[in-house]
Amino acid sequence: MENLRISPKTLTYRDFSPFFNGPIRVKLTKESLLNIKESNKRLLLQISEGKTIYGVNTGFGNLSHIKIAPKDQKNLQLNLVRSHASGVGKPLELGIVRTIFVLKLLTYVKGYSGIRLEVAEKIVQFLNKDILPVIPEKGSVGASGDLAPLGHMALSLIGEGNVFFNGKKMTTKTALKKANINPLKLQAKEGLSLINGTQVSTAISIKTLLDGEALLKMADIAGALSVENSFASRKVFHKAVHSIKEHPGQQLSARNVYRLLKGSKIVQSHTNCGLVQDPYSFRCIPHIHGACRDSFSSAAKIINNEINSVSDNPLVLKNGEIVSSGHFHGEHLAQAMDILGIAFSELGAISERRSHYFMKGSEGKFPPFVAKSPGVESGYMIAHVTASALASENKTLAHPASVDSLPTSGGQEDLVSMAPWAGQKLLQIQKNLRYIIAIEMLIAGAANQIASSNIKSGKGTSPVIEILQSICNYNIGDRVLSQEIELISEKILNNDFINEIIKNNKLE
Fold first, then answer.
1. Which of 107, 133, 217, 393 lies 20 to 30 Å from 223 when distance is taken between CA atoms?
2. Which fold, 204-501?
3. What is the pLDDT of residues 163-191, one digit of tens each?
4. Strand partners, 171
5. Following DSSP, what letter does each residue of 440-499 receive, concatenated?
6. 448 vs 100: CA distance, rounded Å
7. E strand segments, 318-359
8. Is the Cβ–Cβ distance between 161 and 192 less than 8 Å?
9. Could you give the CA distance from residue 67 to residue 59 in angstroms, rounded to a whole number?
10. Mean pLDDT, the chain, as a whole number?
11. Which CATH superfamily hosts domain 2-197?
12. Three-point CA angle 387, 390, 391, nearest 5°
């Protein structure tokens, strides 16, 4: 089980990778404990002096003009959590839920939320016992906090709703009894603090970055495999060509493809073929893949900034002043994930074009649709159609969520970010992309079997061909391809291709 010390220190999205592999244990540092306690003292002082504080002695949203009597203030927090647990849909995956909890702690340990130490310690208890709230995926517009999903998170902390415990879904009450944990009793501001924040949107964005890193590499791997087995030029990926373009992602992608094809006898077999230019989807791999990589880097910077930001409302400042701002607004995340959605959609678009190129055949090399017996067999015609369907779906999904807004809370929240939807459709784009790349690799591997099975592949493409041969029945000809596509996609998801390549090759 992974261990993490929660402190105000800076983290990056990569630090969250273990949370998606299984249970973790966390511990608050002394600095964190002190920050939380001091923040709570400042809040209690303001309350004792009779100050009007949003969400403590007022209503919420468009009801903020209504004063709440002291006798009703605890009930106010309880009602808030229950009413906000209004999400619908499938539960968020457990790695995302663990990340939500940790992100909530990261805000608290900076000392601007005013909550008691007991709130943070309850989250620590849940994490260390791996009691994870059932949080529906839909219901947040990404502003005023991810209110509905965080409402479900908060609901579990007070002993209500449902959780996953020891891999099973059960009532929170049952899980807490089994784990010997008491539910949290909310005090001033605590219900509000639990449901305010961008933690759900940020957790989803972290997931997309972790998955996205591998997809960027796999796009280069699939591209190199297609370059090699379509008999396209390797020369266009040389460092001298790309050093005169000032885009880091382009230079990196070009290096990857050039290295992967090192030592390829297939590439050497057509050095003097007389072909002047390859289609864009081949010779512009560095330009298109590179643009996607640079977009990824820009988005990752924004998401890392959000990870290390305070996301709560109202804020209890160090001087004791309590300020209502908009630090729960997810616009940065929404735009970052929209950019990622466009980037990963483009990776699918160019991959589908390379698959299409193989469908035309190559005279004297391999027949149309890479069929063993064209006419009698359809080859990979419909596998390509599947890639086309997924690429088209991704183009629709890549429409930015952040440009949309529907006012909520009686107009008080009059422009919202839609960050959770930006993240959810990005996850689907990435899933589709895995299939599109899998289909490209399936087809390029088939071309290799027909045209180049006795010729040495590149240093980086050889292990890819070996894995493909182990799961694809290329010698049979026409067959059901769905299972093979699924198996290749699964190996992409599990980093099997990347791990095999990097044993003897550098891959950036």
1. 393
2. Fumarase C; Chain A, domain 2 (1.20.200)
3. 999 989 999 999 999 999 999 999 999 99
4. 162
5. HHHHHHHHHHHHSTTS---TTTHHHHHHHHHH--GGG-S---HHHHHHHHHHHHTTHHHH
6. 45
7. 322-323
8. no
9. 7
10. 94
11. Fumarase/aspartase (N-terminal domain) (1.10.275.10)
12. 85
pTM over 0.90: yes
Dihedral of the alpha carbons of 57, 58, 60, 63, in degrees to the nearest 10? 160
- The number of CA neighbours under 13 Å toward the Cβ of 95 is 17
- How many CB atoms within 10 Å of residue 385? 13
Q: How far is CA 340 from CA 294, 343, 432, in A?
A: 10, 5, 14
Residue 239, both tokens: 């460092």
Cα(113)–Cα(194) distance, rounded to whole angstroms?
10
Structure tokens at 348: 């699918």
| Contact call for residues 245 and 207 (beta carbons, < 8 A) | no
CA nearest to 364, candidates 282, 424, 447, 252? 447
Cα(409)–Cα(56) distance, rounded to whole angstroms?
Answer: 18
Q: Which residues contact 153 (CB under 8 A, 6 or more apart)?
A: 97, 100, 101, 104, 133, 135, 194
Q: Give residue-wise pLDDT tens across range 51-77.
A: 888 878 887 666 777 888 888 888 889
Catalytic-role residue among 54, 108, 280, 474:
54
CA Rg value for the chain: 26
The residue type found at 109 is: V
For CATH 1.20.200.10, the residue range(s) in the chain are: 204-501
